[in-house]
Amino acid sequence: MITYLDNAATSWPKPEVVYKAVQDCMRMVGANPGRSGHRLSLEAGRLIESARTALACLFHVEDASRIVLAFNATDAINMALKGILKPGDHVVTSAMEHNSVMRPLCSLARAGKLHLTVVGADMAGLVTPDRILSALRKNTRLVVLTHASNVVGTVNPIGDIGAALRQEGVYFLVDAAQTVGVLPIDLSSLKVDLLAFSGHKGLLGPQGTGGLYVRPGVHLDAWREGGTGSHSEVLFQPESMPEHLEAGTPNTPGFAGLAAGVRYLLEAGVDTVRNRERELRQVLCSYLSQIPGVSVFGPSSSDHAIGVVSFNIDGIDPSDVAYCLDTEYGIMVRPGLHCAPGAHRTIGTFPRGTVRISLGIFTTMDDLKRTRDAVAEISRRP
After folding, report:
1. Domains and CATH numbers, the chain
2. Which of 64, 105, 167, 186 sits at 20 to 30 Å (Cα–Cα) from 279?
């Protein structure tokens, strides 16, 4: 029996409608969207646009062309950073960021193309507006911040931060890889200029899908250029959205599955998903905290956290704990640094990291009880 608790890496299982959408696309459509005029190509194009439309509905975005489809959140973040930044710009980010943010920023800084400030967080992983605002300079062009930590689940106040940055005339890029489909995100009211997201986590879609929201009035230089199936007579990337930022054959089966996943969420209700996950996280934290020798990191309250919990057992390496959970109990978790070394430095778990449990839409109370009992047994070993 498998108990899957690694949904922050990728959600599994997917709803049956997602599997069916991918299979139907590959078996019955299969053509290249927008590259031909025959019926199968047109149907493939409709599948792509159905994903874009569903995402626009989820995010309360009026103009679906502002949703740019990408391979994953990392792809979308690179698209945003390399499309908006100019030589000499100053960027502010946080110590809690995933390497999807830190690596491109550090590479650009090392190449002398930008100035970078990394602000700290508290021991629970929270980044406050004051920390961000105090780091701004006259040449600050962009603030990049994770919506929720992939290590401890802490949700940052992007509404307050975005409102303050809009007054300062600074662009705001949010990494929402861990929060789309889990937290309600209303881009009609949030002061967010760019929002990067993955399709294979909370949105329940296949791997190889993601996207970037680009606020109307915000222009990005094209990071990827090539065929779009439109404006073929022009030798430069079209300026119209979303073609300006999309090039090459897209993952049509993947986006067909993503559209099905988003529609599933819209029907279930993101608020319902959020409330259930909050309850599960609170129960899990209570279970783990009662086990002698177990330390739980991150917020004690689940009101300001997503379903991610990191813990350690005294005297046992996180990798050994995860190995035992997998091989002896069939429980799938993720140990280590979770591609966020700065976050682990912040909470004091660098360089060994932690054992991370990440809940999903299909996680049950029985899953949590099995995990509690397994961790308790492991903790009692000499």
Report:
1. 3-12+269-379 (3.90.1150.10), 16-268 (3.40.640.10)
2. 186
